[in-house]
Amino acid sequence: MDGKHCGSHSKHGSHGKMSYLENPARKDDLSPEKLLSLIPIKETDAVLDFGAGTGYFTIPAAKAVTGNVYALDMDAEMLDVIKAKALREHVLNIIPVQTDGAEIPLPDESVDLVIASLVLHEIKPLDQTLAQIKNVMKDGGHLICIELEPKEASSHKAPRITLAGMEQEMEDAGFRVVEKLFPSESLYILIARKA
What we know:
Blueprint: H1 14-21, H2 24-29, H3 32-38, E1 47-50, H4 58-64, E2 69-73, H5 76-88, E3 94-98, E4 111-117, H6 126-136, E5 137-148, H7 163-172, E6 175-181, E7 187-194
Parallel strand pairs: 1-2, 1-4, 2-3, 4-5
Antiparallel strand pairs: 5-7, 6-7
């Protein structure tokens, strides 16, 4: 892994990232509630928010299910933000999981749904991480990948992955893409099932 895994940048970059993650304009593109209404989530599901950041999806997902919601990130500061929000909103089913980026420290076949929002393009090598995600998912579980379609001249540090490229990566890892959604001009969502 290259140290940029699971929704985290350097310590200095986390405040800029936090302001982006909490940006109200982002909610217009894809509110967590809108996402949760579009995806196959059941009340009893256990959910992994992979690269949870500030808990943009973690908190609403935890309110939508009775199962555990694992908030996984490399940045302890981000997990502290999630813990504080959960406390404030009286949400008790969030389990913060800090990782060094080398592995997902959860038991095999322990989650029904994985949300990976704006994080998979940062991961090298992606195939190993997708294999780990698949391992922690129950049979028939779903992986929700949210990414930005790359623009022609992107100055972003980690190059974006096209929808076609991400679909190929998922299929190579043993997932079957069952739905493609386009909530905004630049955003795509792939819903994949553990094959």
